[in-house]
Design goal:
The complex is a heterodimer. By secondary structure, chain A is of the alpha/beta class. Chain A is built from 19 helices and 18 strands. Chain A is 35% helix and 15% strand. Chain A is globular, with a radius of gyration of 24 Å. In chain A, 55% of the residues are buried. In chain B, the strands form 2 sheets. A 5-stranded mixed β-sheet of chain B has the order 6-5-9-7-8. A 4-stranded parallel β-sheet of chain B has the order 3-2-1-4, sandwiched between helices. In chain B, helix 4 crosses helix 7 and helix 9 runs antiparallel to helix 10. Chain B folds into 3 domains: 170 residues, Rossmann fold (3-Layer(aba) Sandwich), CATH 3.40.50; 72 residues, Ubiquitin-like (UB roll) (Roll); 76 residues, de novo design (two linked rop proteins). Chain B has 13 helices and 9 strands. The chains are: A alpha/beta, B alpha/beta. At the A-B interface, strand 4 and helix 2 of A face helix 9, helix 10 and helix 11 of B. Bound molecules: iron/sulfur cluster (SF4) (3 copies) and FE2/S2 (inorganic) cluster.
């Protein structure tokens, strides 16, 4: 592409010919409001807020493409007049309706309202007579708050579901959903990570967690953070994506009043242990292959609703947060002499479907839910800000011992990470030896489907990794034609894996996800403990606790089962 | 001159849906577009206020309209055509139209009828494509233009009913430089007249014996988006847009007239872009709430719609409002 230069507000900028003015502005930190532009989604050009002046006319900048010598103004009086009034129209009544604004969560939209002095009170929007719709126990959308930017609809379509759609006409336009009985939401929350006004959002667990922190009633509060959250939470505080904030987060969680800070990463090591064991058994004992991962509840819901025929292939291993939650409420409780009923576990997750998962009756251990509350990364950011905790300024803290994890767990958040972790341990379980080189680079990276062959002694394993249901569908069709095509497959609902999850900060884009992924692999690179089965805490859990339990109790803590799901189930 | 395209050029045919684009140029663009199958669409949506000529033409000259489509198909080397029908229309002309279509279908032409819930935006070319494809009815971002990638991505020629009628007349050598006028006014019947397009509005009113005896003004080209002119201007002004001519008494209450337009815009906005979706609603509310017209507040919104709406529907609101203020109320807009 040809390099050219253009002028924005009188300053010269280098860019590629044909790039949009908005893209160039975003790259150079020039603020232009934009509500319907997302770099990974189609160009809609309908919010009409990204206005600039070009050759005397005011025009949208997301579809104004750079030509040599072009001169545009982003803040001329003509632009201001139209842009500000249009923003008043777009965001009419927004603050009144948005629960995040009421929580004091200062998102990009709130920042822009402040910057451009948009009151949101000059006009009153039309009344939409549609109730808040719950997406399972994961997310929800409020048609009244929707500004019809269509991003959630496009994202839901892009992943291959197509559950959401805009309904109504004129000022009655609002978000609705597909009534087709064969189309259902999988609770991934991608829609929520693409809504500029939180009209579609996670279901609120912030309030109960806050109440708990205020009024503990003799409870023991444990926080556990998912692999991906440490690599993205910095964004909530204006840091660039891909900064590992684990240490700061531990300090912050203690400041908030959590008694212990453990880690979902420890749970990931348990998951890997269980899953790699099962893979080894299936391979040696002619079990159903390919075995498919099941740690993503969005993917599981997809399989249970759209492809129940594939359920026997799913590993029976529970997911990391459920494994660690269950371990802390049994093994650790016993060791620490704490009444499990008094323990409250709060997971910090990059995901909304983890809320849905935490709510499953079938996962209860000794009558208790392994995880009590799930906060998304965004909710976590809001919680810290409400308590005036400025994360980047904090000293790094240390995890409590039961949170100890391996490098294999650290990479769980990235697409291919679960696969790589399992391979590191399965190699040991199958061959009895340890790998010299633990990296499997072929399964890394931002490709919707990755395939690789890995040598395990004299055996070659065929593996595949897919993210987004659209790609899962392709692999499932392939397996149906050729059941022997693969031995092991990792499936995730979200782009790039959990690191691009539906609970991650806004904006969430492939470029940002890529930065976050680097942070995860860096953690792994720096560790000496790099396999799950060598994690001393995990070994202790299995050898000194699990091994001594009767089989049904072991299963109650370690395994799960699946069943065909109906719409809205 | 036996080449149809040259004849169309010579007759200076322009689109009669409202935009007035030269017909021959449109044909050439679709012809040049790469793409295996091409498609011809007859747009009989007619969702604008005060416009009812397409129905009249379909009722009286269905054979010409279909002939126009067939000529276009032959020119493009395709057998595929669609009707985008205003639901109310199709039911009422089906008996006349169907036998004609059957005759051509016997020769291998294929016609698909799409019935549309009457709406203004449904007449917009790309919104119409969305409607037929079963997508949300709203205009598409251009480019691509329909002539390159239209219905299901195929190069598509979209013509209004009257344009197709004209094409047939040109081919038969019976073309007259006329157009269809839709006249309406207080207490007068709505009627369609077929008269020279070179006539002034005053001539039209006088020749049709509909020149009022009271003081009046008129809106031409479309009953919502059309231009408003005073009696003096009618001496020179000719017809524009979709061919409507509505007469109003000078004593018409401005608030009522504005409400009438704004209600239409609020009802017909597709909801895609902010200025038109929210602006049209706010305009309607503003006028409903206030007994006197709040001119300044009103114009702020009208300006936004006119300057930054996504499509011509939203943008067009400035035409009636500003011309009414300037030509009739003698107000600075
Ligand atoms: S949660 Fe996922 S599947 Fe459900 S509507 Fe949102 S994007 Fe679509
Ligand atoms: S719910 Fe949010 S993302 Fe979806 S269309 Fe409405 S405003 Fe846009
Ligand atoms: S101006 Fe905007 S809202 Fe109005 S009809 Fe066109 S696209 Fe739809
Ligand atoms: S971001 Fe350009 S029109 Fe919405």
């Amino acid at each position: 592409m040809k390099k050219i230069s253009i002028h924005i507000d009188g300053k010269k900028y280098q860019c590629n010919e044909g790039e949009s003015i908005l893209q160039i502005a975003i790259r150079n930190n020039i603020d232009i409001p934009h509500f319907c532009y997302h770099e990974d989604l189609q160009l809609d050009v309908h919010c009409r807020t990204c206005l600039v002046e070009f050759e005397g006319n005011v025009t949208t900048s997301c579809n104004l493409f750079a030509k040599p010598g072009m001169k545009v103004l982003t803040n001329s009086s003509k632009v201001k007049k139209l842009r500000d009034e249009n923003l008043e129209l777009l965001l009419a009544d927004h603050k009144k309706i948005c629960p995040k604004c009421q929580q004091g969560y200062f998102c990009r939209t709130a920042r822009q309202m402040k910057k451009y002095r948009i009151t949101g009170t000059k006009y009153h929007r039309d009344e939409i007579k549609a109730p808040i719709h719950k997406l399972g126990t994961a997310a929800e959308f409020d048609p009244q708050a929707c500004i019809s930017c269509n991003k959630c609809v496009e994202m839901c379509e892009k992943i291959g579901i197509g559950f959401l759609k805009l309904e109504g006409k004129g000022s009655k336009t609002h978000l609705g959903y597909n009534k087709d009985p064969n189309v259902d939401c999988i609770y991934c929350g991608q829609c929520t990570a693409h809504c500029p006004v939180a009209a579609v959002r996670e279901q609120n667990h912030l309030q109960p967690v806050e109440n708990l922190l205020k009024n503990r009633k003799g409870k023991v509060l444990i926080a556990q953070m998912a692999p991906s959250v440490r690599a993205s939470i910095g964004e909530e505080f204006g840091l660039p994506p891909g900064k590992n904030m684990e240490g700061e987060m531990i300090t912050a969680l203690r400041k908030l009043g959590f008694d212990y800070v453990f880690d979902v990463n420890m749970g990931a090591d348990i998951t890997t242990y269980v899953e790699a064991t099962e893979l080894a058994e299936r391979i040696k004992g002619n079990g159903v292959l390919p075995m498919i991962t099941s740690c993503c509840p969005g993917w599981v819901k997809y399989a249970e609703f759209y492809h129940p025929e594939i359920l026997p292939n799913l590993t029976r291993a529970r997911s990391p947060q459920i494994h660690s939650g269950g371990a802390y409420k049994t093994w650790w409780a016993k060791k620490a002499g704490v009444d499990p009923k008094k323990i409250v576990i709060v997971s910090l997750m990059p995901c909304t479907s983890k809320k849905y998962e935490a709510d499953f009756e079938k996962l209860k251990v000794n009558g208790l839910y392994p995880v009590d509350y799930v906060l998304t990364t965004r909710e976590t950011g809001a919680l810290l800000k409400k308590h005036y905790i400025n994360l980047p300024t904090l000293k790094k803290g240390k995890l409590d011992l039961p949170g100890t994890y391996s490098g294999a767990a650290a990479i769980y958040g990235a697409s291919g990470g679960v696969m790589e972790s399992a391979l590191r341990s399965a190699y040991h379980f199958i061959t009895g030896k340890e790998l010299k080189k633990v990296e499997f680079k072929e399964v890394r990276g931002m490709k919707g489907i990755k395939k690789a062959m890995v040598k395990f002694g004299n055996r070659t394993l065929h593996v595949a990794v897919a993210y987004m249901p659209k790609n899962s569908h392709i692999l499932i069709e392939e397996i149906k034609k050729n059941p022997l095509a693969y031995d092991y497959i990792e499936m995730m609902a979200c782009p790039g894996g959990c690191i691009g999850g539906g609970g991650q900060p806004y904006p969430n884009s492939e470029a940002i996800i890529w930065e976050r992924i680097q942070a995860l692999y860096k953690i792994d690179d720096k560790m000496t403990l790099r396999t799950a089965h060598q994690n001393p805490v995990v070994i202790d859990f299995f050898e000194n606790y699990i091994a001594k339990l009767p089989k049904h109790k072991q299963e109650e803590i370690l395994l799960t089962r699946y069943s065909r799901k109906r719409k809205f189930e | 001159m036996n080449n149809l395209l040259d004849k169309i050029k010579a007759a200076k045919l322009v689109g009669r849906g409202g935009a007035g684009y030269p017909t021959a140029a449109k044909w050439e663009m679709v012809k040049k577009a790469s793409g295996q199958t091409k498609v011809v669409i007859c747009n009989a949506s007619e969702g604008e206020l005060g416009v009812f000529k397409d129905f009249h033409i379909l009722k009286k000259f269905p054979q010409d309209v279909v002939k126009g489509m067939v000529l276009a198909m032959d020119y493009l080397g395709t057998k595929q055509a669609y009707f985008n029908f205003n639901k109310k229309y199709y039911r009422r002309i089906i008996l006349k139209l169907d036998p004609i279509l059957k005759r051509y279908e016997a020769k291998g032409y294929r016609f698909t009828v799409y019935e549309e819930k009457p709406s203004y935006i449904g007449g917009e070319e790309t919104a119409l494509l969305n409607a037929i494809e079963g997508r949300r009815i709203e205009p598409r971002l251009k480019p691509p233009y329909p002539c390159d990638a239209g219905l299901f991505g195929k190069p598509t020629l979209i013509h209004n009913v009257e344009t197709l009628f004209n094409v047939a007349r040109v081919a038969e050598g019976k073309f007259e430089p006329n157009r269809f006028y839709c006249l309406s006014g207080p207490k007068k019947l709505n009627r369609v007249y077929y008269l020279p397009d070179s006539w002034t509005i005053e001539q039209i009113l006088k020749k049709t014996k509909r020149y009022p005896r009271y003081d009046f003004f008129a809106q031409i080209g479309g009953g919502a988006s059309g231009l408003v002119i005073n009696q003096k201007q009618m001496e020179t002004q000719k017809m524009t847009g979709a061919g409507s001519l509505q007469v109003f008494r000078s004593t018409t209450d401005p608030r009522q007239l504005l409400l009438h337009w704004f209600e239409f815009y609020a009802k017909e906005s597709c909801g895609k872009c902010t200025p038109c979706r929210e602006g049209s609603f706010q305009l309607y509310e503003l006028l409903k709430r206030n007994k006197r017209v709040p001119w300044k507040k009103m114009m702020t919104i009208v300006e936004i719609m006119g300057k930054i709406s996504f499509c011509a529907l939203g943008k067009s609101i400035v035409i009636p409002v500003k011309s009414y203020m300037k030509n009739v109320l003698k107000k600075r807009a």
